[in-house]
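#dry-run=false #mode=assembly
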Amino acid sequence: MNTTSHLLLMALFAGCVAVVGGVLLKDTPRQQARTAAEIFGSLVGAALVLGWVLYFFPL
Amino acid sequence: MAERPSSRRAARPAATAPAAPHAARPLALVYLAGWLIPGGGHLWLGRTVKGLVFLVMLPAMFVIGLALDGRLFPFTPGDPLVALASLANFGSGLPYFIAQAMGFGAGRALAPTYEFGNAFLITAGLLNALIIIDAHDIALGRK
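#status=ok
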């Protein structure tokens, strides 16, 4: 793979997990899409928040 | 407000009545199909759309992990974290064995995407384990 953008790879990873999680947890397409969006938002949001926390409080 | 839980409980048996179990399909074979072919258990049990989504997504995650220079870890009991990662890799089923046979998955620790590759490979195996558990519930008529 050519890209080394960690933000893009993180979004790709979150997208894959979200699709599988949404389809696994719910049964109707509408519920699956909603759950997948929630998982994707949670993963990306948590990563961005933790990234900024670590920026101000490095290990 | 106080009545709501009891009314919900009363409505529950009709709303979420468990499906009939798939008695004709041996559970062990459902597990084996689900493990070797991601989504195979669901396809066998008639959940075609779910099975196809898993059949596409999990091998795709596995291939992305390999493309990102991730590593298929060897099973080394002396190193617990590596052993756990190895078990997670093993969960991917047939793609794992194909990659091993073709010599992929050596990993390149100096690559900037190495850790992302490992995350994709490990997560693909772990998600397949969750999918097998879901197939187990479907086979028993719980879903």
